Amino acid sequence: MTYSPSSPPALSGNWNYPTTVRFGAGRIRELPECCRSLGMERPLLVTDPGLAKLPLVADALVVNTDTGLETVLFADIKPNPVGKNISDGLRVFHEGGHDGVIAFGGGSAMDAGKTIAFMAGQKRPLWDFEDLGDNWKRAETDAIAPVVAVPTTSGTGSEVGRATVVIDEEAKTKKILFHPRMLPELVICDPQLVTGLPPAITAATGMDALAHCLEAFCVDVYHPMADGIALEGMRLVRDWLPAAYQDGNYIEARAHMMAAAAMGATAFQKGLGAIHSLSHPVGAVFDTHHGLTNAVFMPYVLAFNQKAIGDKMERLARFIGLKKPSFQAVLEWTLDLRQKFEIPHTAAELGVAEGRASDIAAMAALDPTAPTNPVLAGETEMRRILDAAMKGRIG
User: Fold this and answer.
1) Is residue 6 part of a domain?
2) For residue 374, what pLDDT band results from cuts at 50, 70 and 90?
3) Is the domain of 187 the same as that of 55?
4) Strand ranges inside the chain, DSSP E
């Protein structure tokens, strides 16, 4: 079959980058086959408490049990997963004799499910695998359980990521855990699963996908493959996020945003920056939604980085079709998106307390994403960005 501009290809396919992805509407029906292809006979389905009550989770459980796969549900996780959620999940995994994980949901379910599978056969404690130096080499690779990832939001892209984020309750910090085998072996991207997302969550998760692509593109590291993926991901966000926000049942928009989310997480193997450096401690301390927090900090970090990213922003603006391609055009585009989606303009509106600003800045400077920010950002610089975000002062 040949395609013309008036006859686009069907939004369905089997991809093998960065892992095996079955993409297309209705492909959740292939869940039992996917589990069995990884040797699972008794998978643990990890999701969040809200999703656990919805028909799409019940339907997934029925699809599996009807084919003889004994599948048990674990949903005791927070919107920002904490260490106890992982230990509780591990207890259920071992007591139930499970042999794999279905990470089903948004970022919290993905991170919790992937971490439970990773820790299934480890002898060291969880925090020994924080993404510092070569800590990942401490893991017993053969003891990691297989994962089928099923995203139900279009933001984190964790379904194609090699890391997770979990809060250390004692230290009150978000810690990134990394291992190459945290990348799920198989992913089902079914845009029908995200048609029920309300507009606010559609916007927040979509801005998360944008933040991943944008920061990856800005990182001053030579990685043209990641840059190309990030650019196309941002074009998809520009073309399709407003449409998905306006009409949640628009399956074409949902499909393109699901692809953009996976592209962001693929691109940011190149690195991230101060948007995430600030978002991580704010989320840990104030329990804010990660994508929404990224959206709040986005223009302030862009302004801080302007001197280092001006040429890249001009290239981005030209690629995605902004008028008068320039840094200013990109900045105004992000501000317009935030206004359209009714995203808070300041960190104060998000709930960040002025009295914790020094703590947040210090944690941001130590975040693993800080070193790849295009402009050096230590504690002093993080505090400057945070102060600007608290007051709504850009530039």
Assistant:
1) no
2) very high
3) yes
4) 13-15, 20-23, 44-46, 72-74, 101-105, 147-151, 163-168, 173-178, 186-189
